[in-house]
Specification:
CATH topology: Cathepsin D, subunit A, domain 1
Helix content: 10-25%
CATH class: Mainly Beta
Oligomer: single chain
Strand content: over 45%
Structural class: mainly beta
Distance between the termini: 44 Å
Radius of gyration: 15 Å
């Protein structure tokens, strides 16, 4: 199965004119998005908190976290961004994809826009 990439513009929510654009690996197995620290610092995003995450190999590691604006496929969404080492590939996680109403077509590994963003149905009162 091939990898899916998408061009993403990351914006500083406090100063949307400060941006960084890069090619992100789409990872539906990741909740949040990852951006190398140097790019987040360049656009003025600073850590707001730290969180412990479980890595793919089962180990845990603490990372700095902030909020960012992500623009891709003519959609803009806001979400958590994890500060990672400068040599790490940027990664677009599931929260950003679902918030934008975009999913990966498993047949051809291409991103496709849903006709509507899915919301969970409310249970009857």
């Amino acid at each position: 199965m091939g990898a899916t990439h998408v061009s993403v513009i990351v914006k500083n929510p406090a100063d949307p004119d400060r941006t960084w654009e890069g090619e992100f690996l789409v990872d539906t197995g990741a909740i949040d998005s990852l951006v190398p620290r140097q790019h987040l610092e360049f656009i003025g995003i600073t850590p707001r908190t730290t969180r412990t995450f479980e890595l793919a190999d089962g180990t845990s590691k603490e990372f700095d976290v902030a909020h960012a604006e992500f623009e891709f496929m003519d959609q803009t969404v806001w979400g958590s961004v994890i500060f990672v080492d400068d040599d790490t590939e940027p990664l677009l996680g599931l929260t950003a994809l679902e918030s934008a109403g975009i999913e990966v077509d498993p047949r051809n590994q291409q991103l496709k826009r849903l006709s509507a963003v899915r919301l969970k149905a409310l249970a009857p009162a």
